Fold this protein.
Amino acid sequence: MQSHLRIATEEAWAPRHLLERYRKLLQSTPAAWDPGFHSLWGHFLGTTPRATALAARIQDLGEGRLRDMDASGIARQLLLLTAPGVQVFDAPTGSALARETNDELAQHIARHPTRYSGLAAIAPQDPRGAAQELERAVKTLGLKGAVVNSHTQGEYLDAPKYWEIFEAAQSLDVPLYIHPNTPSPAMIQPFLTRGLEGAVYGFAVETGLHMMRIVFAGVFDRFPRLRVVLGHLGEGLPFWLFRLDFMHRSSVASKRYPGMQPLQRKPSEYLKDNVWVTTSGMQWEPAIRYSQSVLGMDRVMYAMDYPYQFVAEEVKVTDELPISDADKKLLYQTNAERVFRL
């Protein structure tokens, strides 16, 4: 008999009005403005069967989504505004949209409080406004942290001007979920020519880069209680722990890079102590077990990546993992409850 709830911790949503704004951006900007955005939403706002099915599911926080959850045994979804969220707009527009979508998300959660929880959208384009909106979303709306859809128009959160966001998250004791975006215009071209810019590979490269920039900038030395969540089993970083430590130590000793300075701890230690990962899109036993072995059973949480990767049968992979019932409960339920204060 199942002794745990299945909580899915990286499940996408988008309101209709935001998708319409994406459509207008596609029409009003050349592909060179942001090739990744044009590739991603030029496809998912298209007319292929997969695109139309996804567009319908991603907007639905009602009976359709609940039926899909029931069909795959998911008790609760943690809802994240899909990439690129509000980060593709100018600062005033992004800030206004963040507030609007957070209010709307809170209303949906209130209708189904036992089935949904959510993370706030923020607009890093306005760091102070983003910190203030995170505080409002947590204290007033009851949201459980924030999602940052990786780079914001080619910029990363390791830049000190964004650290007000980290300060707010630490003060509020809520996590930041760094979710993938397509690579920025400065790095995307080699991915595009082979169709590698999206979930197949580019997402992981871009988001893993973002995470390492944060670590190497000393963010966790400045904010030691900051909690960060990464999807897709850490975007490949658990596999790199040894090499990250070795090469960071070597590069600091050589004084080769002005942007790589000594840290108080090894890079791997921050990834083990300040970062949690989810299984979104990675329902593969060897990878899940490896991540649990190097990060710890209390650092890996279940996620499906709905609706982008909605395959009900994949739940069986985690159901059948050769781990104890207690560890299975950590994976499916307890870790999420602790990290997101559910």
In short: The domain at 7-340 is CATH 3.20.20.140 (TIM Barrel). The mean pLDDT is 97. The CA atoms of residues 155 and 184 lie 9 Å apart. The radius of gyration is 19 Å.
